[in-house]
Amino acid sequence: MMRDAREEQAFTPEQIEALMPYGRESSLRTGDLLFDERTVVDSFYVVLEGEVEISRLDGAEEIPIGVHGPGEFTGGLAVLTGRTSIHRGRARAPSRVLEIDSETFRRIPVEVPDVADIFISGLARRMRYTQRAYRQREKLAALGKLSAGLAHELNNPAAAARRASEELGGAILEAQLTSLTHDERFSAGEREALVALQRETAAGNAALLDPLSLGDTEDGLADWLGDRGCEEPWDLAPALAEAGVDMDRLEAMAESFDDRSLACGLEWLAGTLDLIGLAGEIETSARRISELVGAMKEYTYMDRAVVGEVDVISGLQNTITILSPRLKGISLLREYEKNLPGIPGSGGELNQVWTNLIDNAIDAVDGCGSITIRAYVEGARVVVEVVDDGRGIPREAQVHVFEPFYTTKDIGTGTGLGLDIVRRIVTGHGGEVFLQSEPGETCFTVRLPLDTRQNGG
Question: Which of 109, 189, 227, 381 lies in disulfide reach of 116, CB 3.0 to 4.6 Å?
Fold first, then answer.
């Protein structure tokens, strides 16, 4: 795994040894509170062993923010301000901490200056991260509100359009068949032949053709229609080809017609199929709108708890739907383990992880490569891999990719915050993110615990 920025905020064993005379040790069992938002924090804490999770309350939900391991500290900002903490600290595993009261802590910068340097730089970095995290949450909340409005405004007319298009297709066919029964250009036998072929195409017997084969079929039909006296055969052929009508079927139908009525019958058939096809396109487009709105609702976790059980595969699928315009021309392979269990966490935040990783893979393949997304269980963790066959990340850049504001993209195309956000969200969920890259294969691996109360995997 890349070097975590938290390492720069950790005390060395020698520095911890120097701090020991200034405080007192205490032990915590898993789940014990070190401090919470209801009391003034009057001590500075250094984790000696185990892990302390920092979280905050959002209504009744407890949202994890980060985890401090051995050598890391917490409580510093509250000690400096003399105010209550806006967060709470809870032991995520059996832990030992060094507690230094505020009065004693004020002597440390003078007596142990190298420890003060670690504290000040670490506290400044932590404040920047916290501010950025709040901004991200505010943006996601704003996106959720916007999506709620769009969902309400788009779902109703989209549903109405789907119903109307379905009825429109039936109404068009009914009108065409009614007009055919009164069309004196055709005999009774010719009408029956036209209706039979129309019903055959409506039954869904058409074989799906690739674009090249479809084009060849249209060319052949256009020539056949032109030879039978049809006007503008190039306009009639596409509707017949899309419906699966081939020359053998036309030859069979033509046996029931004379030369005069055949062209008229083919024009009626092509026109009917074209109108029904247009109604079908409206229905398909309206369904696509509903699917996109639904994916956006799921993506932003509207009307759902901020923290709960997260369906990783659903999150990946919704992210792919949102990014689908950028995936055109790219070969996308999905390898999901069946019955993948849910994991505890924030679905909205994890969707930011998937968005950043897949978006980076799209940039890496430059519109013409392949991307593989895997999700599976490994031990006590759910693993997600995003693999692309792009140009790869230079070895000298790999050690920096998770650092804030570092980017390998061209000026103006990247902020350098995407992978920093990924790292912070994943570690905030008690997980890890790894990178392996060489030309032709880059793999980002995210490991998330099935139970955040467990330490490690």
Answer: 109
Answer for the pair 371, 362: CB distance below 8 angstroms, yes or no.
Answer: yes
Structure tokens at 19: 């701090």
Task: For strands 370-378 and 331-336, give the pairing.
Answer: parallel
* Per-residue pLDDT tens over the stretch 52-95: 988 877 655 666 777 888 988 887 665 555 556 777 888 989 99
Assigned domain for 438 exists: yes
Give the count of beta carbons closer than 10 Å to the beta carbon of residue 29.
10
Query: Could you report the per-residue pLDDT of 38-56, keeping only the tens digit for each?
Result: 777 778 889 999 999 888 7
CATH number of domain containing 60: 2.60.120.10
Tell how far CA 351 is from the center of its chain.
5
pLDDT confidence of 28, banded at 50, 70, 90? Answer: very high
Question: Could you tell me the two tokens for 159?
Answer: 């549903």
Structure tokens at 84: 């209550």
In angstroms, the Cα distances linking 98 to 18, 127, 170, 443 are: 12, 22, 76, 39
Domain span at 248: 149-293
- Pick the closest to residue 32 from 44, 50, 15 (CA basis): 50
Determine the Cα angle at 396 with ends 391 and 402, to 5°.
Answer: 85
* Residue 246 and residue 313 in one domain: no
What are the CA-CA distances from residue 390 to residues 80, 223, 387, 438 (Å)? 48, 45, 9, 9
Gap between the Cα atoms of 68 and 308, Å rounded: 22
Q: Which two tokens stand for residue 131?
A: 């501010």
pTM higher than 0.90, yes or no? no
If one counts the domains in the chain, the total is: 3
What is the CATH number for 387?
A: 3.30.565.10
Long-range contacts of 183-188 (CB under 8 A, 24+ apart): 183/268, 185/261, 185/264, 186/261, 186/264, 186/265, 187/261
- How open is the CA angle 83-87-88, to the nearest 5 degrees? 110
Supply 212's token pair: 């090249």
Instruction: Verify that 314 and 445 share a domain, yes or no.
Output: yes
Q: Where are the alpha helices (DSSP H) in 58-112?
A: 76-81, 102-105, 108-111
- Is the pLDDT at 289 greater than 90, yes or no? no
